[in-house]
Amino acid sequence: MSQLSVFLQRTITGVLWLVGAVIFFRWLLGPLMPFLLALALSAMAEPLVQRVRRHLKVRRSFAAALVTTFFLLVLGGGAGLVLGRLVLELRQWSARLPEAIAGFPAVWNGLIDRVEDWYASSPAFLRSALDALAEQLMEDGPSLAGDVGGWLMGAASSLLAALPDAGLFLMTTVLAVYFTSLSYPAILAFLKRQLPTAWQAKCRDAANCFRSTILKWLRAECLLLLATFVLLLIGFLWMRLDYALLAAAFTALVDALPVLGTGTVLVPWALGCMLLGDTGRGLALLTLYAVGLIVHTLLEPRLLAGQVDLPPITALLAMYLGFHFLGVGGMILLPLCMLLLKQFQDAGVVKLWR
After folding, report:
1. In whole angstroms, how far apart are CA 126 and each of 136, 146, 169, 300, 312?
2. What is the pLDDT of residues 120-148, one digit of tens each?
3. Residue 94 and residue 89: Cα distance in Å, rounded?
4. pTM here?
């Protein structure tokens, strides 16, 4: 086979994979997500199901139902406690939101006064530019507050409107987990029969690669996310913040995004507190950021030992493209898929580049 034919074959294969990936992630992933989650949870529960069958000498249907119920109670109970507290804090915060918006112009003017006191002692060549900037900020401050408040209220309305769909998604996922776990070996056998014989070995290698790399990576990331959340929650409770759980959850989720970190939230928050005169809280936030960075730096090499991460520029590109095509969820999903593709390439499952 000539080099041109090899190049054309690889190009066509790459384009077909890209088109298939776009179609899957753009139109099929959402509707299939409950069943994909059910398959993943059933795969995680399968070793325990087999152990229950051997030790209790019971039928597979009973063992699968018992293990699935246990998993769902543990996951649902923990998620219910956290979500219940988050909803309570979110309701309290939304009740105080109009008062906070009404008081924003006064806070803004106080911030401008402090900035004016600071640049009063600045060199003369900076004062003209700083005066123009201060005037522009004073003009745009009230409208900016209104825009922010309107965006927050719109986001809250969208969240409430999405609750029925979330309930249907949750119920479908729960039922799919039960049905998938009951027939997990038969489902795997059916999927295997649909593959050409030449593909079965590669698919088996891909499944082994997925279990040995991506699942370990996800486990490590979840542990890092949990450690960050607990550390932030302890720090916020020690600082006696009104909405400690909500703030810790939001900051931990930002930290979970590729490239971003807790500093994206904590550093601007600390600087704002200092500019408003709350120096103690600002220093506490900076200290919490430093402690979190140290803990994250110490834990990450141990939890991710042996895992090959994406180069920073590739992670940034995947995050940007994921956000552009899939929204906020794509910022996490596409880098994860890029990591999986790199692992398949390294394991020889696919040959997409040299």
Report:
1. 16, 30, 56, 44, 37
2. 666 665 667 666 766 666 666 666 666 66
3. 9
4. 0.60
